[in-house]
Amino acid sequence: MDLNLQELEKTEFPVPAELENNIAITSLSQLYNWGRRNSMWPMLFGLACCAIEMIATASSRFDFSRFGFEVMRATPRQADLMIVSGTVTKKMVVPIVRLYNQMPEPKYVLAMGACASGGGPFKEGYNVVSGIDKYLPVDVYVPGCPPTPQALLFGMIALQRKIDGQSIANGDDVPWYGIGPAEPTPVPVLGPDIIDPRQMDMIRRQAEAAAEDMAMVGQRELPSATQLVAAKVETAEDAGAAGAAISDDALSFVLPTGGNPWTEAEEIREKRRLRALARKAVRASRRAADAEEE
Amino acid sequence: MVSPALAPDDVVKALSIEDSMAYLKSKHPDAVSDDEREGYSGVVVQASKLVEVARAIRDDLGFDYLSSATAVDYLGAGDHMEMVYHAYRTSGGGALVFKAQTERENPEIPSLVPVWRGADFQEREAWDLYGIKFPGHPNLRRILMWEGFHGHPMRKDWREAYYEEEQKPFDNRWPGGHVHRSEEKNVFGKNVTYPPDIDLNRLMDTSESEVYASLGLGVDVERILDKDGFETNELVVNMGPHHPSTHGVFRMVLTVDGETVTSLEPVMGYLHRNHEKIGERNTYLHNIPFTDRLDYISSMGNNHGYVLAVEQLMSLGRKYNPPTYRCEAIRVMMVELSRIVNHLWAIGFWLNDIGAFFTPVLYFIQERERILDFFEAVAGSRMMCNYMRFGGLFGDLPERIKSVSNLTNDRVRDYNTMQFLTEMVNERIPRTIDELEQLLTQNEILLERSIGVGILSADDAINYSAAGPLLRGSGVAYDVRRADPYSIYPELDFDVAVEQDGDMYARYRVRVTELRESVRILKQILPRLEATYGESIWADGKPGAYAPRVPFGEAYGRVENGKGELGYYVVSAGGRGGSSNPWRYHVRAPSFINLTPMGLMSSGYKVADIVGILGSIDIVLGETDR
Questions:
Q1: pLDDT of residue A292
Q2: Do A108 and A82 touch, CB atoms closer than 8 A?
Q3: Do A194 and B192 touch (CB under 8 A)?
């Protein structure tokens, strides 16, 4: 939503007659968002094939400056938006996280293309990160391989819409409207394989298990939204203790068994499905009861 | 030819490939033997005599250009490691293929860097990905992965974190009708595995000297950085991987003395997305869209090289029909259009690097968009065309060029294809090239910046395996389209662009001439398209098999792509009646090998020239790192 000055003048607050066409009243959030969405400078930062389409989007035929993405800046210090345009490799994710930490807030991440969103065609590769969201919070995903300039523009407009919905009042939603500086994202380390400092504890456990000749096999269910929120709260609490983000609870879904991971995953899925069905039934009966009461 | 070993020098230098092999065998009877495996060619050289034989190949026989050096792991098929070399004469002709074998445990093959400097990066890659040691190599360190990575990933017994099966298509992609994400099966929920003996305490060294320690700079970083005050002006400067002028995620580490560069070490691998490992799991057909993503500026050219290599292999079998004439004509047209796109892009971004920031390139991108519109209408995608198939194409040219959707700021596209092409080839593209030349060729600033900068001599260019405009800008008239012709190039009339000076300006001139030559080729293609109108693009009128069985053997298909010589080394092994997956799939990437002389070309010039020199090489990281 754009700020429409004509609209803003029609306000419920009393405005003296002589000032009628000179005063606009709006909320602070709206003013912030209006400024932010229309001066969103992307970082001049290309990773792979998608970068070529990003350049095409920036050049005269498509021209994203029309939408307020005025100019690309090569330094992260002057950029508001990181367009992750291409395959993120393990070797490259280290500088990417560093660049992200160097960007001033408010900062946004747009995952452009299949690779940045989830690994894409190269996902199985040994040097490929399965999407930048394994390391950084992503605001908008743009599908495509590569997305056409039109698709990228659509993604950028979607980001503007997202900004429109943000509010100063809700600090959880938008961390930089809250109090105090945000924690930097821990920079991954290149060891025998890439190491996410947030998983350091888990890797240590695995090494201990290996020393006792008990390999940690099995699968890890992707944490659901509630678990993620819980993990977030924990990290905020013990932010000082580096690399202890994964709690014992979070570790409990690592199954140290030698069974077939496929069938186990199947069982877990089946359980989930049954639980969901049960919940659905409870809701349905409750609704029926409510209807009867009325 | 009675006794090749006794012939005079100039005769030996003109021997055919077979006679050259006979010459080698008679000169080194105990070290050289024929490669007798089914479908293979060339000679096998005993590893201990490799350097000696290589010198004979270069000096006696005149195969002065080492195109490709790559490793193959024959686990379960002879259980040995093999280095395969393809050497060519810069005067033209086919390849002399020679191989050296070693055991899989502690593989060791003498380095050929003393003979061909162009083997430098390729041997480092073989060490990185296969763990083959090269005694005699000046700087044998990992090149694509980082120092400290566990294992050598291209070995057949090394498995990645998301390993599922040896080959695609996987047996059951969706067991029980559920989609599995690879993350769910991994303990860490990420694409990682760690060796059991991981030592976490030794990982956190981020000191400055440690950052540069794994690069083999040949300078004492500690000494330089430790000096206090202004005693010295020697510095280590890091450029990239995030830098606006490195054309992607490329990194250079320079040591400078004041403004003058004393040494330069290219560091790559930031876009190493395991093209070859994935390619060996894929079926042959699967790989075509992956080749698009190598040199993503000119994807049609990448398709062509790969398709040629596999067609070479398929022609060894019985059931194979070569592509029809119309198919070849369309292929050549697409490749030449890609070359135009590539050179426009290369010149535009080179100008960015030398200071004309983003103004000239906008003109060229505008013309490129026009060509991409055509690709989109024909192949369905602007950049990743995935257009060529073995023995044919994805589809014939459409009757009309249409827009996929009506863009708000774009007039609805609906043109007759031939009319569109004729206008593009006869008017639009020549007009753009004229405009380009008018703005740039005699531009005083451009001349000042580029003449006499980044000089590479002809001998060095050949010895360092430079290819494409980099080689031709140094006075070597070597173009694969003429030197080792393929497709319908022999019957087309065009000249090989060549400039003698070997500097940035010479490379620019080569590119401009090639743009004009491409237009000349396209003008010859159009009547051929009209003459073959209505003919099938497939030899037997219907598309080829989805998963073709490819007979045993090896093939090296190479094409002259915009960036230089693009080669595909494909080995088919295993399975009855041929294989459906390549055993070895290697890309000889011009962007990668053209970086070998980067250090040589840069030392002695100013820091500000470095990005210009890099731009004049014209690299694309998808291909450099694969």
A1: 82
A2: yes
A3: yes
CA distance A28 to chain B (A): 34
pLDDT at residue B517, rounded to an integer: 92
With residue A194 as reference, give the H or E element that holds it: strand A194-195
Please tell me what DSSP assigns to residue A77.
G
Q: 3-state class of A106 per DSSP?
A: coil
Q: Which of B200, B249, B622 sits opposite A92 (nearest CB)?
A: B249
Question: DSSP letters along B235-260, please?
Answer: EEEEE-SS-TTSSSS-EEEEEEETTE
Q: How far is residue B94 CA from its own chain's centroid?
A: 18
Identity of the residue in B198, B244, B273 whose CB atom sits nearest the CB atom of A128: B273
Q: Which residue of A has its CA nearest to B162?
A: A124
Confirm if B593 and B119 have CB atoms less than 8 A apart: no
Output the average pLDDT for chain A.
77
Tell me if residue B265 falls in helix, strand or coil. strand
Q: How far is A112 from chain B (nearest CA, A)?
A: 15
Query: Are A130 and B185 inside 8 Å of each other by CB?
Result: no
Nearest to B189 by CA among A115, A257, A198: A198
Is the per-residue pLDDT at A11 higher than 70?
A: no
- Cα angle B455, B461, B462; round to 5: 160
> What are the structure tokens assigned to A146, written together?
């590569």
Give B-chain residues touching A269 at CB under 8 angstroms: 178
Give rounded-to-5 percent helix, strand, coil for chain A.
Answer: 50, 5, 45
Residues A48, B296: C-beta atoms closer than 8 Å: yes
Of B194, B269, B622, the CB nearest to A203: B194
Of the partner residues B175, B275, B278, the one whose CB lies closest to the CB of residue A262: B175
Chain B environment of A46 (Cβ under 8 Å): 248-249
A:B CB pairs within 8 Å:
205
**Number of Cβ atoms within 10 Å of the Cβ of A150:** 17
- By the CB < 8 Å criterion, does A113 face chain B? no
Contacts of A161 (CB under 8 A, 6+ apart): none
Asked if residues A148 and A199 have their Cβ atoms less than 8 Å apart, the reply is no
What is the chain B residue with the closest CA to A261? B185
CA distance A264 to B66: 53
From CA A35, how far away is CA A39, in angstroms rounded?
6
Residues 255-284 of A with CB under 8 A from B: 261-262, 265-266, 269
**Phi/psi of residue B401, each to 5°?**
-90, 115
Whole-number Å distance between alpha carbons of B328 and B343: 22
Helices within B37-195 (DSSP H only): 50-55, 119-130, 182-185
B382 Cα to chain A: minimum distance (Å)? 8
Pick the closest to residue B614 from B155, B252, B197 (CA basis). Answer: B252
Q: What is the ipTM of this complex?
A: 0.85
CA nearest B178 in A: which residue?
Answer: A266
In this prediction, residue A228 has a pLDDT band, given cuts at 50, 70 and 90, of: very low
Please indicate whether, in this complex, the C-beta atoms of B149 and A189 are within 8 angstroms of each other.
Answer: no
pLDDT, one tens digit per residue, over A178-221 is 666 677 888 888 888 888 888 888 888 878 877 777 666 544 54
Burial B276-300 (b: 16+ CB within 10 A, else e): bbbbbbbbbbbbbbbbbbbbbbbbb
Contact B84, B97 (CB under 8 A): yes
Average pLDDT over residues B170-187: 72
CB-based contact B189 A266, cutoff 8 Å: no
Tokens (6 digits) for B15: 């021997």
